[in-house]
Structure formats: structure tokens, C-alpha cells
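In the previous chapter we treated chains in isolation. Here, by contrast, the input contains three separate entities that must be folded as one system, with a combined length of 1090 residues.
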Amino acid sequence: MSESTYRIQGETGEWEVVIGLEVHAQVTSNAKLFSGAATAFGAEPNSQVSLIDAAMPGMLPTPNQECIRQAVRTGMAIGAVINKWSRFDRKNYFYADLPQGYQISQLFHPLVGEGQIEISLDDKDPEANVKTIGIERIHVEQDAGKLMHDQHPTRSYVDLNRAGVALMEIVSKPDMRSPQEAGAYLSKLRAILRYVGSCDGNMDQGSMRADVNVSVRKPGAEFGTRTETKNVNSVRFVMQTVEIEARRQVEVLEAGGKIVQETRLFDPDKGETRSMRSKEDAHDYRYFPDPDLLPLELDDAFLEECRASLPELPDAKRRRYEQALGLSAYNAATLTADADTARWFEALLAEGARIQKKGEQEVARASANWLLSDLYGALNRLNKDLDTSPVSPEQGAELLALAADGTLSGPLAKQVFEIMLETGDAAGKIVEERGLKQTSDTGAIEAVIAEILAKNPGQLEQYRGGKEALFGFFVGQTMKAMAGKANPAVVNELLKKALAG
Amino acid sequence: MTEITDLGVAALRDGVRAGTFSAREVADAFIVKVSKAKALNAFIVETPEHALAAAAAADEALARGEALKPLAGVPIGMKDLFATKGVQTTAASHMLEGFKPVYESTVSQKLWDAGAGMLGKLNLDQFAMGSSNETSYFGNVISPWRRGGGDNAPLAPGGSSGGSSAAISARLVPGATGTDTGGSIRQPAAFTGISGIKPTYGRCSRWGVVAFASSLDQAGPMARDVKDCAILLENMVGFDPKDSTSLNLPVPKWEELLSGDLKGKKIGIPKEYRLDGTPEEILKLWDQGIAWVKDAGAEVVEVSLPHTKYALPTYYIIAPAEASSNLARYDGVRYGLRELADGQNLQEMYAATRAAGFGPEVQRRILIGTYVLSAGFYDAYFTQASKVRTLIAQDFENAFTLCDLLLTPTAPSAAFALGEKSADPLAMYLNDVFTVPASLAGLPAMSVPAGLDSAGLPLGLQIIGKPLDEQGVLGAGLAIEQRAGFTARPEQWW
Amino acid sequence: MSVDTATVKKVASLARIAISDADAERLAPELNNILGWIEQLGEVDTSSVEPMTAVIPNKLRLREDVVTEGNQRDAVLQNAPQGEHGFFTVPKVVE
């Protein structure tokens, strides 16, 4: 556990920043939290709206089991208390994106209680600089609709497709002290959600967004007044928001002003936060238990199913990769940082072990190295990611197996891989069709060597005269003459013999 | 010969089945009655085509020799709080004037599925808030009853289901739906000499019923006698997965098992209901009721419901609080009224729309509800009321260890004149003193006509049952009905 | 406690109901009267009482995660006081 030393240097001395995040994560589900309308992203306006979402008179909510289940699993993944008795409350306010005039949420009795997340502040060694960030609660609530302001000179357009989609609100304790910690926390939370499968974490589609609570204080002093910057939708923007808002607060305070507890908006174009005028209206949400819904009571069987369906989580996986598979800390951390990467790697590993008839730990390092350098390098170049990779884990495993059993030399393997990327063909097929197989045929190699020695009498003489560094020259010439297909070990052995005369 | 419109639900159903008259004749007879009763203002919309279509279906089924549906040939009135597909649904509010739902409420759909036809949408207190039907945007409903002795002052039909009570007692419909949040079925039934039952909370789906106070709202039937209520109720209740508070229970055979024999039953008389200032006539009628149930074989015991006096204040926190939130959706954006002056912004549009769309009583209750939920007051008002509500429910539980049913007056007075109480909201609220406790506890309760006061106006008695014991409530209602011999009806002046 | 006209206006503003000064003057004593009467609840000792959560014992059922509704934009918009291009419209909101 380390204390952050991040400080803002003001005219009156150093200031410490205190940060809490309220993350809204869209629950992965087919239908909405309280209605049977679909949740898919990008549909035609108002085409995914039920009569309930439009708050028609007499419409009533009925809760979607999957949304509850995913929130419970998320709670379990952060080691949180799951409340077997929880309740939905109404948060009352008027806005054009809120058809009911209230949001069904959970204030008094949330579904998930206290938990925690460990963040690492050291890229190279994830165990070196670890900090625990407390989670206050997770509750389930409805998302609002969407307003569009730029379609008409005097009107805003209302699209209710999002209205009623299930959100988890994940509320951290004010435990973060620097933009880096806030960024690490959000990244880690996103990774956990994606592992659990409770949220797709697509911040650019609004599936995950953060309200950033920031205050500043002189180190060791009481908490200052905080502001809440709403709906910040990327890790980078969260870090910027913290930095910009903290600096603004320091300036205000040092100029003798006071911080007003208010809702603000982050403007990435201007690099500033500003007060949200439309939400200035002092909020008195008049929460009370939703009388349309009974208390939510979960039984042990339900909780057991939730627990049993939890996957291995990123920290556990990372440690296993290091300890059981023998990967480096950095490789283990990189491979487990995202659920998709880990899934891809494990598919590669499983297939590799299967076709090579070896233990996973025996193929792990080669697999990890290939994925992180060769494959990532290629994907980067092609502007693709694992999802759209032209090479599947099974194809990758085949390539690695061919390298491992000596069929392909290192350079040959790279060559085959390039062809795989272009054609999508399997490694074996490419080797077969293009004759790219490595040869250990001593007769053929000896013939080529004899030819090389005959062609280069000068170098041969120098070598035999003691200039042994020329060995590499003969290897290169031999490999070149054999189009890279000769087994380098065999070439070495035969060359030594031949050069010795 | 008896006029068709003098017949009740059972008689009409049986007559159509027996071929005594056709469903078409029944529908025609009631349609004419409805069309001639504009002076009562019981209907907001008349839907003769709906009633005729249902009648045609019944007559055709009969002609084909098919078994008839349970309510085939019976036209009814639908309180205008139930959403009816394609038919204007207003909750008697300017806010929803012209609103035609694209959906049908579960309860009304069940009635249509059972073969009933709709004569029209019945007037009510705006958003079901009121006890006299004086808060409707579409005008007061006038009770068909008048005090004797040449006093032609228009009287209240009770509320909020005042259109239903007036239409039934005037023989414009044989039965109708009502909804009851704090007495809105029982009090109007008592005021107009008819029967009405609010079943256990959760029996009738609330889906598609314009919400007033979700934890209290419950639909129920109103008709001229107990058996008709049982028949209609059977065709209104039932599990609805679309309502989270709906009870997943089979539909009982209330009509088949209906019996006025109270042998072995214990009937409790809650002593706290003997309020100071209750008219002597009401107390006398109550005593008469006690004698009737004894005559029917019941044992009568005195019981105590110690928190009775707190029921009304509790109700007037919980109901307005829930209403203030339930009615937030009427904002001029997706349906209903929009008031928007040039240059007004969104929040100003809301305020203008809601000021113009909601009547004074609705506004008053929204303000009370907003106040009791607002920051700093929530615990003192809403939490305290929710706790007292627990105590009120416990009072009933305790009483029901000593008895099976409770017998009380329905209302502390006979129908009052329109305007008599409308200037004093509190006086109006106090009219629900006997009906509100059972609503807070979600219990089945019914009013049956039991006699007339000295001015010739009907008075009702209320039976309250244990949760789910509608059968017991209906049975005791029948026992009283059989002994009261209530045959009085308003003289036609409209 | 006493509700004054300023409180009435504040509550009306929370409830988004436009009221005039005269309305507030009229409503203040009315609401005071009702709230004063309601306040008798304070005398009940509820220290060991739980607030009611379900009127009739019943369990919250959870729905299967299946899409059952949607693709009904016209029906959803049918009663809208104002709309265009498949949207509801409201006076322009400045955020």
C-alpha cells in the first residue's frame, strides 16, 4: 500500500486531491430492467420503446432477472456484501429524458453493499505499488432517454430507446488521490465488468460512464467541498477532469472564493469543466420506496448460481499465469488486463497443448511471446484487434507447433505468419503448398555447403587462418542458398565440420 | 312486465342464455337509457357500438348453439380510469382529454373476454381523487337520488366512482367497474343504494388502470346486489404477470359458493368505529345490521382496532405521496395536454401544463404529497405513516384472531348535497373514515345497501374480511341483503 | 410547523405546478389545516415498528430476459402533442 504523493502546487502551498467515482455501467441484457423492450445499441429512434418506457398511464414495471443476476455477480467479483433483501426506490425529478417523472433506483436498500478493488500503479510490476479502493455500494437503476439538441433551431428531440435500460451504479469511496489512481481504478473496474460479463465496457457507446467527484484540501486537513462532474466517458477524460477540476478549485480557494457543491460538465474540446445550468435547480429528489414493486428477496440457490457462474477474475488469473505458467509479471499483467485478450490467449494455449501433446505450462511462454509481439505487432500494423484478427487462436497454435517441432525455423515461421495474415490459410497448408518446410536433410545441406566453400576460397582461407568470426558469414550464405528452409542447428553442425576441413 | 333495464347482471345473463330476450334487445334497452340520462352526467363517453358488438357476438354464439361466455349479453359501464384501446381514457382530467390508449387494461380485457359489452366510460372524481364526484373536469355527476319533501338539491353520488354508482342506481347499466383507493367503491355504493366490493389488494391487476396511489388502488365491481358483484368480480380478478403486486392465485367460484348462512361465523364489531358525532340513524342501522347477522346465524363479538383514529391521517400522507410521484408522468411530452407559451422553456412548459391540466383537488394532493416527501420531512411524515400503517394492519390481524368478519357502517352520513363539503377539503376527507382502514390493510371490503335515512336516502353497511376472504365478505353481504329487503330506488326525474 | 406562501411556492415549483401569488395565499392556510391534522400521527409510538413494505404478503417475481415489446414507434408517438421524424419534441433544452 502506498500513499500518493500527487500534489497540486498552489500559491499558498501544496494541495491534495480527493476523488470518488460513481460509475454507471449498462448491464448486459437482452431486455430492459423493467420492460420487455430491447437494449441493442444504435437502433432507429424510439423503435425500442415499450409502453412502460414511455410511461403511458397505468403501465407498471416488472423486474428483469438477468439484470439482478448480473449485478449480484458483479458484487461477488469485488468481494462485496450481497444484500438478500433490497428494494427499489423512486428518485423524483422532471426532465425530458425521464418519462415517468422519476427514476427507479435504489437509495435506502441497495442490492450490493461494501466491497473493494485493488489497483496497481506500476505497469512493470503489478504487485509492487498496489492500493485498495473501497466500493461503497452497487445499486441497480433505470437509464434515462436521450435528448438531441442540434436537430432543430428551437426544439430538442427525445429518443427513449435508452430509457429503462438497466444500469449498475458503482459508487466508490473517496479513496483516490491522483488522476493516475482514478484512471487505474476505472480501467480495473472496466476489466472486472468485462470478465464477469455484466457490462461490455464500451465507453464510446455510453455503456460505461463516470460521475467524477473531486475536492481539494491541504494535506491532512478535513475533506473540502466537492463538485460532481457528470457523464465523463473515457479513462483519459476522467484523468483530465480530475486534474482540471482540482486546479480550478485550488484557484478559486486561493483567490478567497468558496467551492459550491454543484454538478459540472467536462468539455474535452475546451479542456475545462463548467457548471450545468440546466441542473442548477436545487435537487430534492423525494426518494421513497416504489409502491409498484415489492421488496427484492434473493434466496440461497439464486446466489449460489451467481457465484458458481463467476469466471476466474483478472488478479487471480494474472497470479496463475505467473506462478503456474511461468510467465513474466509484465506478460501476465498484459495478457489478463482485458477479458478478451485472456480468452484469446487461453484458447491459443489450450489448442497448442493439445496438438503438441504437452502441458500448458510448456507451451505458455512461446504462446505469450508470439501473441504479444508477433500477433499484436501485426494487428497494430493492420489496424485490427483480436476480435477482427485474421488469424484465429487455433491457427496460431498450429503455427507455434510447427515452430516447436522444428518444421519451421524462426524466420520461416515469420514468413508463414505473414502469408496467414494475407490469405487466412492454415500454417500447415501454407507450408505444404509453398514448400516452406525446414529441411534437416544432411546430404542436401552438405552439397550446398560444399558449393559455398568452393565459391568463397578467400573467406575460407581467412577462417582457417583463425578469423572465426566469419562463421556467421558461411551460415548466412548457406541459409540464403537454401531459401531459409535449412534447419539452422544442422547447418551449424555440418558447417563446423566442413570448415574444419 | 319488468323492464329489461330493471334486471341485474345475473338475470340478464340467464335471460339471454334462456332466450327470454336477445343480447341485442338488452343492449338496445340500456343504450336508450344511457342516451336519455345526460342530466346525470354519469358518462364521459358513450360507446353503444362496443355494447352492440358484444351483444351481436353473444347472439351469434347462441344461434350457433355454442356455450355462452360468463358475461355474454351483459353490457356494463367502465370507470374512465381503465385504459380502453382506441376509446378516450381521461381519468376525468383535462390533462388526458382526447387521450386514446393503444392498449387495454387487464381488468377491462378480462371483462370483454368474458363477453361483456361496454356502454361507455363513466365519470369519476379527477384521477379518482374525491368523495363526491365534484372534481371531474367533465362536470359533476348528479346522484339520481333526491331528498324527499320537494328538496331538489342535487346530491353527490359519492366518489370517486360516482359515475358508476349513479349509472347503476339509475338503471343505466346493470353493473360497472369501480376502483377503490380509500373507499371509492364502497362510499358511492352506500350513497346510491347499491352494492360494491373492493377485493383483497392484488386480486385485480392494476395494469392499465390510471394510477392514483399504487399501494392502495384496487379495482372492483359495483352492481345492484351481492350476487351480481360476485359474478362480475370473478371476471375481473386473476393473476397478471404484468403487475408485480398481482397475487398468483386461482380465481375462486364466488358465485357458486355464495351463501347467506352465517352459522359458525364470528362477526366483530370494532368499538372504535362508534365515533362521536356519528348520526343516530347510522348507529341505529348498524345495530340493525348486528341483529341481521345474528339472525343469519353469526355470533357477534366486540373487537378493538386501537389505531383507527390514525387511519385517515396515515392515508392522507401515503396516498398523496404516491400520487405526487405517479402523476409526474403527466408532463405534456408524450401524450395529453401541453401548455406552451411562446418563449417558454421546458420547465416552464411542465409547470404551465400541470397547472392547466390538473384540477384544484389533484393539485392540492400533489402539493401535500410533494411536501411530505421533501427533504427534511420524509421520516417525520412518510416513514412514520408507513409504520402506523403496519400498526393498523396489525390491529386487523389481532381482531381476526377473535372473529371472521367485521361489520361497520360504510360512511358517517348519507349523501350530501353537491357543494356542501367541497369548500372544506378536510371535511370531505373525513367522509372516508370507515373505509380507509381496510384500504390501508389491503383487506376485502364491501358495502351493501341496508336502509334509508329520514330524508329517504340510502345508507350502507360495510363488511370487512380477512385477506383473500371475499367469499366470507360476500356471504355476510348476502345475509344482510336478504334481511334488509332493500328495494328503494330513485324516482326518475332526469 | 407552519407552511407559509414561500413554502407553498417552493413545493409547487418542485411539483412543477405554476401557481400565482393569489393561489399561494389561498393554499397556505388550506395546506396548514391539512398538515396540522396529519401531524397527530406524531403521537403514535412507532419506535419498535417496521414500515409496511407489502400490503399483502407477496414475493417480487423476476421476469425472464426476453424481448417482448418494441418496433411500435407509431403507437408510442400516437398521442404525442408534438413530434417529428420519429422523435418526441420539447422546447430546446440548454445543457
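Chain B has 15 helices and eleven strands. Chain B has one domain: 1-494. Compare these points with the single-chain example from earlier in the chapter.
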